[in-house]
Amino acid sequence: xxxxxxxxxxxxxxxxxxxxxxxxxxxxxxxxxxxxxxxxxxxxxxxxxxxxxxxxxxxxxxxxxxxxxxxxxxxxxxxxxxxxxxxxxxxxxxxxxxxxxxxxxxxxxxxxxxxxxxxxxxxxxxxxxxxxxxxxxxxxxxxxxxxxxxxxxxxxxxxxxxxxxxxxxxxxxxxxxxxxxxxxxxxxxxxxxxxxxxxxxxxxxxxxxxxxxxxxxxxxxxxxxxxxxxxxxxxxxxxxxxxxxxxxxxxxxxxxxxxxxxxxxxxxxxxxxxxxxxxxxxxxxxxxxxxxxxxxxxxxxxxxxxxxxxxxxxxxxxxxxxxxxxxxxxxxxxxxxxxxxxxxxxxxxxxxxxxxxxxxxxxxxxxxxxxxxxxxxxxxxxxxxxxxxxxxxxxxxxxxxxxxxxxxxxxxxxxxxxxxxxxxxxxxxxxxxxxxxxxxxxxxxxxx
Length: 448
What we know:
About 35% of the residues lie in helices and about 10% in strands. It is α/β, with parallel strands linked by helices.
């Protein structure tokens, strides 16, 4: 049987064993507003065939990203993934492999994780990288916890250009650990004075580039100010493809670099699973969360790979661990590594230039529309436009015409007075016809 339900006696025994009276007591730490007041309006039971039909009808309401002109970004980007990537990651030795605790039988897994770390370190301009995090948002929160351990301070400053979801994850984890978070107001034009928010109690400053609104930021002045006060600079990115063109955060003085690697080798997949990238300086390596693969030699002098610098507390005694993560996104790492290997340095740089050129072409066309303003002076493949009408309504109108125009800022930052702003991303998958359709559709939607 696929499901073996518990009896009331079973449930009572389990509750008694953990010392509580009801199931609800298990959720006592969840804020009241986050819990549903009653179960969702779903049938209590259906046969398997009926469930398949119901879910099939629900799925058919989605518009596949590959079926229409697609300009959605805001932290998850549509890129072309070569067929060879999916073919290779579905080999059984990769698809079913388990945690490589026994290096003598896991050299293949360990080697590709080592290569993944090498690629991430090179991309970010850092000295060492780990064998992945769950995703960019949780990786950012882990970076903040790491900075607290390094500096022995508990105050983080979040830029107003940090992705809203990343900020929420940081605040959630910081609340549970009793840490202080200073969140600056949304910074649409990258004009905030984040240096003024840094003082002697600051543990770290978190800055994203390209930021949530698409702006590229010079991290050097922020890094210098942070270091003067004994704080660390955490550089964040959501679009890994940008690292093929813009100067690396490591070259600009970042101490910890973390972000989302979905753009390379991994499809959109309705939001996951994704792969968090995490890199830092060698001097902080023992405070780095997650796994680390190292290169060594065996008793006969042959090259080999092992998990290294990982204590048993990392996997067992969680209250003593340096991280809330003790696994990794292995298959997504492999997809990233295969795609990066196929591209190489030259291919990645060329692909990044195509992304930027496509976005510039679209921005120029949109800027020619009456009452439409492009707010960015610099960007990679995503930018913010101001519309004369609420962006959410325009997005819905264009979706009805088979055009996915972007992400309204109000969806990420509700109640902030940013209802007229729209985030638009254009990658290598967009054609001239796609961009023309968006411009034409937007023009018509705005004149109705």
